[in-house]
């Protein structure tokens, strides 16, 4: 049979792309290659519902096993793509096997940023994949001592919340930047969340780095901080960000910077090769953007599928994101500007509020909400429609933002 | 194991055995029912598992909580009286034989 689409990576982006191709009537073969052995799964619950045990492994599945058979998607689990031979339109697997493609989609995701130091004692974890979550869960069950989380990003804070609230552990978060969520949220939202974690009993040290680890017989017992303190630790989780998996693309001569570079159609400089999801970087309003979220994975997957089937949709996202921690539902729509004005709607003390972010031209660019899902859904519509409330309208909970649409 | 009937916009139906205690969304995903996207995996964060329940059947299931009500505000297809998010409905025997209509779009 003539070659069809080969997708490398079977997470949110890869599987959505395969599903969308079929729903658009794509008839050619679809092969999905994944180094992981599990049926493709949802990643967000790994730090939350799966970590507490509330979500069963079966309920993590993105699609049922049946789906792949019914939709004629050749899911090759436990196979690692080793090389792309662009001139031959082939992917070489680590086993030496070659897979022909007409179109190749790179949905290779990211991997945890490695710790720059040398010897890592046992008991230091990262969290990206199902197997990571498994070993962290096992380790939590086997120990009772304090947990130290290095990195105050979303994954680190979600784990801190889970370990504190559901496992009643002593939890400390270490963040090198002056505030938590420095990269992913506004200082206003960081502040709300910081206080919420403190009241739940999580300890947070910002502006503090880690110089190394203490260990006993090869297992971690403490974390040494830049201020000289040593924190006792039975478990350490490293949440210091991720780096995009772009090696395959780089070795194939495709331009990469912080991610695999793609145009508005999710195409690399080789029109037969697409890159979607966390591994891709694209230009939005002149700035390079690499988004690490489920929304971006799904939406880029749909764009790539549309181009492959000849519809040529382009990607103009309103990025959105959610996190659940300690009873707070945090949702962000849009991109927070580097400089501009932030307007508060509601009361941060009451646990229901929103931050409206305007750029220096008073254009609304992002809304962060706390326990206000309806407002979040509306925010996505307002941002997609390119309309802005005035600062006064944004601040007034009685002003119905629906009137702007 | 109550049986649910998922009905597509074109009228075609699919009979699905659902496990008590799971969500209607999970039952749909396991049975590969088309038109239920469930992008967020049941976190009540995406509104892409929107379904329609017949208003008379709504009485058989617990009413939507505030969070679900809020998210329903943002569904892509028309919101109707029987609009619910499938991830927020727990399967019980009371759902046996219930017809669950899939909207024409989720995003």
From TrEMBL, chain A:
<keyword id="KW-0274">FAD</keyword>
<keyword id="KW-0285">Flavoprotein</keyword>
<dbReference type="InterPro" id="IPR028202">
    <property type="entry name" value="Reductase_C"/>
</dbReference>
<dbReference type="Pfam" id="PF07992">
    <property type="entry name" value="Pyr_redox_2"/>
</dbReference>
<dbReference type="InterPro" id="IPR050446">
    <property type="entry name" value="FAD-oxidoreductase/Apoptosis"/>
</dbReference>
<dbReference type="GO" id="GO:0005737">
    <property type="term" value="C:cytoplasm"/>
</dbReference>
<dbReference type="InterPro" id="IPR023753">
    <property type="entry name" value="FAD/NAD-binding_dom"/>
</dbReference>
<feature type="domain" description="Reductase C-terminal">
    <location>
        <begin position="320"/>
        <end position="405"/>
    </location>
</feature>
<protein>
    <recommendedName>
        <fullName>Pyridine nucleotide-disulfide oxidoreductase</fullName>
    </recommendedName>
</protein>
<dbReference type="InterPro" id="IPR036188">
    <property type="entry name" value="FAD/NAD-bd_sf"/>
</dbReference>
<dbReference type="GO" id="GO:0016651">
    <property type="term" value="F:oxidoreductase activity, acting on NAD(P)H"/>
</dbReference>
<dbReference type="InterPro" id="IPR016156">
    <property type="entry name" value="FAD/NAD-linked_Rdtase_dimer_sf"/>
</dbReference>
<feature type="domain" description="FAD/NAD(P)-binding">
    <location>
        <begin position="6"/>
        <end position="301"/>
    </location>
</feature>
<keyword id="KW-0560">Oxidoreductase</keyword>
<dbReference type="Pfam" id="PF14759">
    <property type="entry name" value="Reductase_C"/>
</dbReference>
From TrEMBL, chain B:
<keyword id="KW-0001">2Fe-2S</keyword>
<dbReference type="InterPro" id="IPR001041">
    <property type="entry name" value="2Fe-2S_ferredoxin-type"/>
</dbReference>
<keyword id="KW-0408">Iron</keyword>
<keyword id="KW-0411">Iron-sulfur</keyword>
<keyword id="KW-0479">Metal-binding</keyword>
<dbReference type="GO" id="GO:0051537">
    <property type="term" value="F:2 iron, 2 sulfur cluster binding"/>
</dbReference>
<dbReference type="InterPro" id="IPR012675">
    <property type="entry name" value="Beta-grasp_dom_sf"/>
</dbReference>
<dbReference type="GO" id="GO:0009055">
    <property type="term" value="F:electron transfer activity"/>
</dbReference>
<dbReference type="Pfam" id="PF00111">
    <property type="entry name" value="Fer2"/>
</dbReference>
<dbReference type="InterPro" id="IPR018298">
    <property type="entry name" value="Adrenodoxin_Fe-S_BS"/>
</dbReference>
<feature type="domain" description="2Fe-2S ferredoxin-type">
    <location>
        <begin position="2"/>
        <end position="106"/>
    </location>
</feature>
<dbReference type="GO" id="GO:0140647">
    <property type="term" value="P:P450-containing electron transport chain"/>
</dbReference>
<protein>
    <submittedName>
        <fullName>Ferredoxin</fullName>
    </submittedName>
</protein>
<dbReference type="GO" id="GO:0046872">
    <property type="term" value="F:metal ion binding"/>
</dbReference>
<comment type="similarity">
    <text>Belongs to the adrenodoxin/putidaredoxin family.</text>
</comment>
<dbReference type="InterPro" id="IPR036010">
    <property type="entry name" value="2Fe-2S_ferredoxin-like_sf"/>
</dbReference>
<dbReference type="GO" id="GO:0005829">
    <property type="term" value="C:cytosol"/>
</dbReference>
<dbReference type="InterPro" id="IPR001055">
    <property type="entry name" value="Adrenodoxin-like"/>
</dbReference>
């Amino acid at each position: 049979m003539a070659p069809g689409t080969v997708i490398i990576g079977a997470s949110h982006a890869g599987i959505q792309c395969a599903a969308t191709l079929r729903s658009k009537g794509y008839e050619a073969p679809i092969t999905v290659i994944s180094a992981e052995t599990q049926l493709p799964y949802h990643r967000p619950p790994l730090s939350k519902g799966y970590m507490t045990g509330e979500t069963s492994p079966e309920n993590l599945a993105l699609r049922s096993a049946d789906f792949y058979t019914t939709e004629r998607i050749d899911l090759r689990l436990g196979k690692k793509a080793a090389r792309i031979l662009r001139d031959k339109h082939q992917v070489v697997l680590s086993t030496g096997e070659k897979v022909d493609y007409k179109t190749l989609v790179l949905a290779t995701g990211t991997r945890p940023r490695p710790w720059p130091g040398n010897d890592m004692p046992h008991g230091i974890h990262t969290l990206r994949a199902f197997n990571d979550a498994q070993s962290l869960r096992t380790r939590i069950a086997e120990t009772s001592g304090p947990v130290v989380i290095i990195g105050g990003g979303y994954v680190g804070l979600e784990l801190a919340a889970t370990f504190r609230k559901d496992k009643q552990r002593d939890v400390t978060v270490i963040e090198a930047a002056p505030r938590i969520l420095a990269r992913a949220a506004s200082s206003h939202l960081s502040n709300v969340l910081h206080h919420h974690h403190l009241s739940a009993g999580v300890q947070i040290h910002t502006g503090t780095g880690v110089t190394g680890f203490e260990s006993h017989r090869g297992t971690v017992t403490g974390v040494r901080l830049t201020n000289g303190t040593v924190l006792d630790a039975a478990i350490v989780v490293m949440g210091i960000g991720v780096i995009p998996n772009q090696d395959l693309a780089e070795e194939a001569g495709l331009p990469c910077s912080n991610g695999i570079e793609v145009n508005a159609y999710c195409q690399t400089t080789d029109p037969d090769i697409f890159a979607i999801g966390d591994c891709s970087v694209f230009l939005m309003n002149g700035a390079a953007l690499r988004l690490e979220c489920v929304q971006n994975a799904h939406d880029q997957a749909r764009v790539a599928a549309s181009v492959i089937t000849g519809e040529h949709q382009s990607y103009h996202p309103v990025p959105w994101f959610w996190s659940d921690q300690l009873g707070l539902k945090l949702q962000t729509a849009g991109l927070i500007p580097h400089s501009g004005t932030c307007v508060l709607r509601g009361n941060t003390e009451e646990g229901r509020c929103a931050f409206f972010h305007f750029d220096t031209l008073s254009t609304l660019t992002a809304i962060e909400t706390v326990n206000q899902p309806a407002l979040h859904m509306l925010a996505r519509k307002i941002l997609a429609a390119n309309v802005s409330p005035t600062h006064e309208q944004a601040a007034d909970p009685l002003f119905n933002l629906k009137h702007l649409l | 194991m109550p049986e649910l009937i998922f009905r597509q916009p074109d009228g075609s139906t699919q009979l699905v055995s659902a496990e008590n205690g799971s969500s209607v969304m999970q039952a749909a995903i396991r049975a590969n029912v088309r038109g239920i996207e469930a992008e967020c995996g049941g976190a009540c964060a995406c509104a892409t598992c929107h379904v329609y329940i017949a208003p008379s059947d709504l009485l058989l299931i617990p009413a939507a909580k505030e969070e679900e009500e809020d998210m329903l505000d943002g569904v892509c297809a028309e919101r109707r009286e029987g609009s619910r998010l499938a991830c927020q409905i727990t399967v019980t025997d009371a759902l046996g034989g219930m017809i669950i209509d899939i909207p024409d779009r989720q995003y």
